[in-house]
Amino acid sequence: AYDMLIVGGGPAGAAAAIYAARKGIRTGIVAEKFGGQVTDTMAIENFISVKATDGPKLVSGLEQHVKDYDVDIMANNKAVKLTKEGLINIELENGALLSSKSVMLATGARWREMNVPGEQQYRGAGVAYCPHCDGPLFKGKRVAVIGGGNSGIEAALDLANIVEHVTVLEFDTKLRADEVLQRKAKAANNIDIILNAMTTEVVGDGKRVTGLTYQDRASQEIKQVELAGIFVQIGLVPNTEWLKGDIALTARGEIEVGQRGETSIEGVFAAGDVTTSPYKQIIIAMGDGANAALGAFDYLLRAPSE
Ligand code: FAD
């Protein structure tokens, strides 16, 4: 059995693995795709002390750093069930069963996509999901924010300080964001809000986004907006479908954690975007992973030995 088995090979899982291995305990890491969301990222400019990097480079750095330690890496493996009978068991999709004294859940999250033509083609070439990450790349340009919930209006207010103009497109007939955010957005002179609008296509010149089309749901008319960037803010979905019913999750599916990353199951810890940690960023996920690994190590020190 492992002392610490980590599920997830993104920044949180990698940080947890290194912290665990440095304690000299038996550490394993199971990951469907090593690198996680970072694999899909082009420019990374907010990983402090590294002025600029990109996803593939950072993933290769993560992998090399983890491989420097005695960690069993089980990449391309998906966890499908967690159970506890003395030890904590993780069942993999291929039927294998792994046992560990402690488990770290770091399965991350995924942005909900619009599923319209052009979105995949221009992902990272104008289609963006993270305003904290990619906002500055659109300095002085025109952008759209898709979604009028809290994250959409927060993104619009944030972007309005950087870009020339923001158009918010909301599918519903009203915004769902908090009143105070709506008021600020309506007061800003470079934010336009279009309600009852269904985005139908991301338009580009083959290299980058040049605009989008949407359908006015009242008149059925198709309209076009010219812009350089589209921030999709229609939800972040935590990868916890496989844990439902077994561990305490919030209504949005995030794993509830305490200050040391502890969850509702003794010996099971969690870190990164999959948790209630409010801001979803690489540097925060890494910090969370280190924090929860130390929490799990503390737990192991106190756990009765078999
Ligand atoms: P993830 O990176 O999501 O990793 C989750 C891991 O768990 C993966 O290895 C995945 O394969 C694995 N996994 C999931 N389910 C299972 C399962 N059932 N069994 C086994 N393994 C599983 N942040 C920044 O700070 N700066 C940026 O510039 C930036 N740009 C971004 C651009 C894009 C396009 C995206 C999508 C995100 C960006 N982010 C950026 C956010 C950042 O990538 C995340 O906050 C960070 O990756 C979270 O790390 P994590 O380890 O918690 O989860």
Descriptive account of the structure:
With about 300 residues, the protein is an alpha/beta fold. It is built from 6 helices and 19 strands. Strands 1, 2, 5, 6, 7, 8 and 19 form a 7-stranded mixed β-sheet that branches. Strands 10-17-11-12-13 form a 5-stranded parallel β-sheet. Strands 14-15-16 form a 3-stranded antiparallel β-sheet, with no helix packed on it. Helix 1 (about 10-20) packs parallel to helix 2 (about 55-65) and helix 4 runs parallel beside helix 5 (about 180-185). The model has no long low-confidence stretch (mean pLDDT about 95). The structure holds flavin-adenine dinucleotide (FAD). Flavin-adenine dinucleotide binds near residues 10, 32, 38 and 242.
Q: How many β-strands, per DSSP?
A: 19
What is the rounded Rg? Answer: 21 Å
**Sheet of most strands:** 7 strands, mixed
State the share of residues found in helices, binned by percent. Answer: 10-25%
What amount of the residues lies in strands? Answer: 25-35%
Instruction: Give the H and E element order.
Output: EHEEEHEEEEEEHEHEHEEEEEEEH
Bound molecules: flavin-adenine dinucleotide
The residue-averaged pLDDT reads 96
Query: What is the approximate shape?
Result: elongated
Distance between the termini: 12 Å
Name the poorly predicted regions.
none
Structural class: alpha/beta
Query: How many helical stretches?
Result: 6
Assembly type of the shown chains? single chain
